[in-house]
Amino acid sequence: MFNWQNIALLVLSYVIVPRLTFLPSNVHTLLIVFGPFIFPRIFNLFNTSRAASRSLPVRPVPSKVQRALNLLFVSVVAWIALSLPSFAEENIFRATQSRWQAEPNVLFNRLALLRPLTPSDERLKEKFALNSANKMLYFAFGPDALLNCLWCTGTASTNDNRNYFYYSLSKLVTPHIVHLAVLGLATSSMVGPEGSRFRIHATIAGLALVVTESWYLGTYDISANRRAKVLQEIDFAHWRIRVLRYISFALVDVALAATLYLTSTNRWLAKPPPIANRIEATTKVAEETLHKLRALGLLENSINRDSGLRQVREEYWRTEGQVMSDTVAEPEVAQKINEALAKLDYASLEGKIGEVADGILSAIDATRASQPLSASMTD
Q1: Would the CA dihedral through 298, 302, 303, 309 be positive or negative?
Q2: What is the pLDDT along the chain (379 residues), one digit of tens a residue?
């Protein structure tokens, strides 16, 4: 049997995915081959989680989760702010709109027209004048690595590129450590089980960002910029990676915040409380009900033993019966009652009553039939 979900899966697997040619070839091939097997599982997982969420009532955000959401909101704002150019190191090529082939004297003369030169600018000028390959290192690792790496020779060899990468690795990992700390706080035990259930997932996401950025920078080909003829063709990898890093942090935090909000309010992936907690809650409700029934029994006995209270109760019910009889006797009320009775479908009502009666009788018959069987098994 075909339904809308099966039709959507067929269209997604055999119509949409083959046309996603902008994806990397390896990813595109994997989606074409394994997509028809993966997409149904994703749909089933989504339907299962949605069905589980519907079985529990929606509740407000717990106070502990609200604190985690506030922390993630602050972190998202901070990451987005840090991704702005104002907080990045100055890119003198972009500031002066110069090609990488520009002579160091020309480049820094243009920079001097924009602002006074600093000692770091003079050192950078010497680096560029010493070897043009240092410009490639500048594009890939930024000015700090080029100026302050003590064990780097500036020869642009493979080993020297690795040295610059090792130097940049410390600055690369530092914001990731801060991000992992934020994820750890947002999914710690202080948030409660709503946050701790996603601690492993958040940690894996944070570590994946570290590994991805380190792998990309470690395997980056700095010589690719030599083919750039204009400024727009230069790949300023250091600044581009920096922006993508903080945007990725913000996206991960937004995803975690959305997950915490949806799951803590039972809107998605609702997880019922443990059986022990449910038994404890049910026991408390039963105890409270028992105490109320006992109090009601004591009150009833007190009323029955006191003649004055007993007369008040009898007078109340006598008055209540008189008021109700007078109300029903009014023409308007009688007319409304007759209209309501006229609208009743007695045939369907009799059918429902018959179904209920048949169900009761069938249950009684099944109970009677099971008794001789159990007796014979006992014999």
Answers
A1: negative
A2: 456 767 777 777 777 877 777 676 777 787 777 777 777 777 776 666 665 555 567 788 888 899 999 999 999 999 999 999 888 888 999 989 888 888 888 988 899 999 898 998 888 888 888 888 888 888 989 898 888 887 776 555 566 788 888 888 888 999 999 999 999 999 988 888 888 888 999 999 999 999 999 999 988 888 888 888 888 888 898 999 999 999 999 999 999 999 999 888 887 777 677 778 778 888 898 999 999 999 988 888 888 888 888 888 888 888 888 888 888 788 888 888 888 878 877 778 788 888 888 878 777 776 666 555 444 544 5
> Given the structure tokens 């929606």, which residue do they identify?
58
pTM score over 0.90: no
φ, ψ (nearest 5 deg) of residue 206: -65, -45
Asked if residue 99 lies in contact with residue 123, where contact means CB atoms within 8 angstroms, the answer is no
Question: Rounded to whole angstroms, how far apart are CA atoms 189 and 55?
Answer: 26
**Coil vs helix vs strand at 376:** helix
What interhelical angle do 199-218 and 158-186 show, nearest 10?
Answer: 160
DSSP 346-363: HHHHHHHHHHHHHHHHHH
Measured distance CA(115)–CA(174) in Å, rounded: 30
Distance between start and end Cα atoms, the chain: 51
